[in-house]
Amino acid sequence: MGNPIGIMVDSLRLGLRDGLKKAKELGADGVQIYAVSGEMDPANLSPQARKELKAYIESLGLNISALCGDLGGHGFQDKSVNADKIEKSKRILDLAVELGTKVVTTHIGVVPEQANGPIYETMLHACEELGVYASSLGAYFAVETGPETAAHLKSFLDAMSTKGVSVNFDPANMVMVTGDDPVQGVITLKDYIVHTHVKDGIRLRQADPREVYGSLGYQPMSHELIAEAATSGPYYRELALGEGHVDFGRYFQALRDIGYTGYLTIEREVGEKPEVDIANAIAFIKRYQ
């Protein structure tokens, strides 16, 4: 595959600047960066700081594949907090465009099976507003796969007036949580995929996605809890590339077949040696190029 390779900087666990340098050393073409809190919170980045960060990333010969704007909690299911979450998501979209990327990835909460129920309508309303805003910037608010099947996610996306809400395709999440087939998922969601994660894993037993990704009435989602569950929980394991149940030969072929030319961004949420795992992941992907 000729797709550029990205690294989720936070997966290296080195801090922003050191992580950016290490990503370049490892041979990445680009990086994805969390932009929710701390120094990357849009509220903490002055116009000058944004220019300096963009220039620094460019000086390393890197691009930004996407920002991660995942606000956790119950996604956009809770109408009482959505106004603040929508406003912050818009500011993350603004930051993304200023830094030279068109993609912000996120989790929106589990889309209920029952269309037109109150939670479904609340999520749809929030995503419609964000999709329209993203489109006005020439950008995408990309929902990460995993909490629901590809077919159900497509039906939710089809209900909007814009493709400003699109898809960050993560094949491992599908394998680990819903048991959905990533290859068929690529075909189903082909009109929406604007970014991908490269990750692997196995499913140990059936899980309720609401317990993993957060839903009203369930524990709020956090990446710390997801990493803990992926290491020692009862339902799934995140594994190094090639050690899980993602059929990468067929998966990469499916991406070729739909004409996807965007980033293959490595995310590693577990493991004692992330730098080694990510270096091995780059070598693994290059075997298909």
Automatic annotation (TrEMBL):
InterPro entries: IolE/XylAMocC-like (IPR050312), Xyl_isomerase-like_sf (IPR036237), Xyl_isomerase-like_TIM-brl (IPR013022). Residues 20-287 form the Xylose isomerase-like TIM barrel domain. Signal peptide: none annotated. This is TIM barrel protein. It comes from Paenibacillus phytorum.
